[in-house]
Design goal:
85 residues, mainly alpha
Length: 85
């Protein structure tokens, strides 16, 4: 039994419609994924705060303070070792 021309046309229209929907869905999904990936990349690199000089200065000041404290603690440790000897 052969398929009628009407059934073939309906079948073609259904497949074309599904293909268009799939293409639109894939395109939309790709755009969402690309946008989210861009957000994550910006967050990893420093994003909008990467060029913020105030934050850079704050970070440098904090690191300098940590280094000074480390040196003081190391000096105190050496001093206490000399007292024990």
């Amino acid at each position: 039994m052969s398929e009628s021309s009407f059934e073939r046309k309906i079948s073609n229209v259904t497949h074309d419609t599904l293909d268009e929907r799939t293409t639109r869905t894939r395109t939309r999904t790709f755009a969402v994924v690309r946008f989210r990936l861009q957000q994550l990349q910006n967050a990893m690199v420093g994003g909008e705060q990467a060029a913020n000089e105030e934050l850079k200065q704050k970070r440098r000041k904090k690191l300098k303070h940590v280094e000074e404290r480390r040196v003081r603690l190391a000096g105190a440790s050496l001093g206490s070792e000399r007292l024990i000897d």
